Amino acid sequence: MLSILIVDDENPARDELTYLLSLENQVEIVGEADSGAAAIGLAAQLKPNVIFMDVQMRGMNGLETAAVLRTIIPDTLLVFATAYDEYAVQAFEVGAVDYLLKPFESGRVHMTVERLKSYHGDEWGAAIQRVDAALHKAKVVVQKLPLEKNGKIIMVHYNDLIYVYTQKGMVTVVTIYGEYGYVGTLTELEDRLIQTALVRVHKSYIVNLDKVKEVVPWFKGTYWLKVEGDIEIPVSKSKVKEIKGILGLK
Questions:
Q1: pLDDT value of residue 202
Q2: Within 10 A of 227 (CB to CB), how many other CB atoms are there?
Q3: Gap between the Cα atoms of 237 and 223, Å rounded
Q4: Termini Cα distance of the chain
Q5: Sheet holding 144-149: strands in order across?
Q6: Phi then psi dihedrals of residue 223, to 5 deg
Q7: Least buried of 11, 64, 101, 240, by fewest C-beta within 10 Å?
Q8: How many CB atoms lie within 10 A of CB 161?
Q9: φ, ψ for residue 176 (rounded to 5)?
Q10: Shortest CA distance to 10 belongs to which of 85, 97, 102?
């Protein structure tokens, strides 16, 4: 059974695709979203195994939304819908992600559904890898982090993060708006934040170096970083040289 989330900022397009998918066997439409932000929240809650998503949407477009969704529901397959003509699609396609052209055709929708239903085990995993390769080739970079609070997914810009810490296996992100949870490990988050001002300074901490107010020398050549809120965060001895270099300290 395919559980499907439909994402499009145009209501007629959602209605049309919903109708065509309802004609298919072993298909359950679990929800609809009219924006990228709404899609992220619904996807985290419903965990569909397939998302049909418009490429061109107001606000976060389909590719930007997809890049965030990969971090939340990595086993979900994405199918993009677009109004581009066939030549534009061929130029955009990387042989990985399935596409539906608007206006939708019942035969093409049926073909896509049958292809999705044919994926099992390793085939599904291979399709997921092709989606990731397509997004990487498109060079999609989203400067916001999906964080959790009270059952909601909140998108917070990297610039608004102060520091991150892990305790008893739980990752907490401290922002200018308050504290939020992050689904994942500190190492996974570190990998995501490469080439940003958010740097791993300790086995238990990532710090936004743009939020550092004071560098406090400590014994045996170590340091503490005082960030907004006058919170002091330790720098591991193994990280001292790297952090001093980034901050321009001698």
A1: 95
A2: 20
A3: 8
A4: 61
A5: 152-157, 144-149, 178-182, 170-175, 161-167, 205-208, 198-202
A6: -140, 160
A7: 11
A8: 26
A9: -70, -10
A10: 102
pLDDT at 39 over 50: yes
Hey, what amino acid is at 100? L
Task: Tell which wins on pLDDT, 80 or 90.
Answer: 80
> Taking a C-beta distance cutoff of 8 angstroms, is the pair 57, 36 a contact?
yes
User: Residue type at 15?
Assistant: D
Q: Is 137 exposed, middle or buried (0-12, 13-18, 19+ CB in 10 A)?
A: exposed
DSSP 102-127: SSP-HHHHHHHHHHHHH--THHHHHH
Answer yes or no: are the C-beta atoms of 120 and 94 closer than 8 Å: no
Q: d(Cα 137, Cα 95) in Å, to the nearest integer?
A: 11
Q: Are 239 and 200 in contact (CB under 8 A)?
A: yes
Identify the structural domains of the chain with CATH numbers, from first to last: 2-137 (3.40.50.2300), 144-247 (2.40.50.1020)
Cβ count within 10 A of residue 127: 18
Count other Cβ atoms within 10 Å, centred on residue 41: 19
| HSE toward the beta carbon, residue 56, CA cutoff 13 A | 8
Backbone CA torsion sign across 112, 115, 96, 1 = positive
0.85 surpassed by pTM: no
Q: In terms of C-beta density within 10 A (0-12 exposed, 13-18 middle, 19 or more buried), how is residue 35 classed? A: middle
Query: To the nearest whole percent, how much of the chain has pLDDT over 90?
Result: 47
